[in-house]
């Protein structure tokens, strides 16, 4: 397999809102290679979440093409996109999407079970990862009984549990205190070192952005590279 995880070619995204077309980004092209660590910054409303949804297949580009590990991702059926997403990507939403009826442990184990894993092994792996995000004492709690930051840490464990090709994280530490935020970034970097998972992380915290190898800014419909000294 080539070392290009995501090959994004000329993607644009527009929404139609009350008959007006709003363009969010235009003709973006980039490649994410195995092990890349990229921070994405930009003002509120610049389109960062939209971009993350489009490259993770949760939404489609208005035009352009996205290849995920060689699969023509945006041209696949909804079902195949779901399968590829579970197989190759971990996604951490700006607002967590945990399943309320499952415990923290089972929320994290689920992607492994969906991928065909044995439930006992999946739970063991989930327990390990929940330990790494500091939640060993909350395994049986359901999301409704966790704090906001704890829920976010469960969501982070869930995104990492399959050791995916890439993790796309949209403000993953937005509601965590500084110490926990840095611990989560360090954990993502450890997984990046251990298994070569690429990281694409939206953050408005420059000290977190500096933990990545590259920083891109989304502004005026385009992505630009920022020099380290400009972060
Ligand atoms: N479904 C939609 N229909 C119309 N406009 C939309 C839709 N989704 C997003 N937008 C608009 O697209 C723009 C970009 O939104 P997006 O959520 O991607 O911004 P963002 O950079 O993630 O902002 P933030 O930092 O506040 O999270 C916003 O102006 C938003 O109103
Ligand atoms: Mg956003």
What can you see in these coordinates?
The protein is of the alpha/beta class and 231 residues long. The protein has one domain (36-61, 77-230): P-loop containing nucleotide triphosphate hydrolases (Rossmann fold, 3-Layer(aba) Sandwich). Helix content is 34%, strand content 29%. It contains 7 helices and 10 strands. The strands form 2 sheets. A 6-stranded mixed beta sheet has the order 6-7-8-3-9-10, sandwiched between helices. Strands 2-1-4-5 form a 4-stranded antiparallel beta sheet, with helices on one face. Helix 4 packs across helix 5 (148-160). It is globular, with a radius of gyration of 17 Å. The chain starts with a strand and ends in a 5-residue tail after the last strand. The model has no long low-confidence stretch (mean pLDDT 93). Adenosine-5'-triphosphate binds next to strand 1, strand 2 and helix 1.
Mean of residue pLDDT values: 93
Bound molecules: adenosine-5'-triphosphate, magnesium ion
Low-confidence stretches: none
Distance between the termini: 33 Å
What profile does the largest beta sheet have? 6 strands, mixed
CATH architecture: 3-Layer(aba) Sandwich
Q: What string, H for helix and E for strand, traces the elements in order? A: EEEHEEHEHHHEHEHEE
* Number of continuous helical runs: 7
What Rg is obtained from the alpha carbons, in whole angstroms? Answer: 17 Å
CATH homology superfamily:
P-loop containing nucleotide triphosphate hydrolases
Q: Number of folding domains?
A: 1
- The amount of helix comes to 25-40%
Number of strand elements: 10
Please report which band the strand proportion falls in: under 5%, 5-15%, 15-25%, 25-35%, 35-45% or over 45%. 25-35%
What's the CATH class, please?
Alpha Beta
The third-level CATH topology is Rossmann fold
Return the structural class.
alpha/beta
Specify the overall morphology: globular
Strand order of the largest sheet: 6-7-8-3-9-10
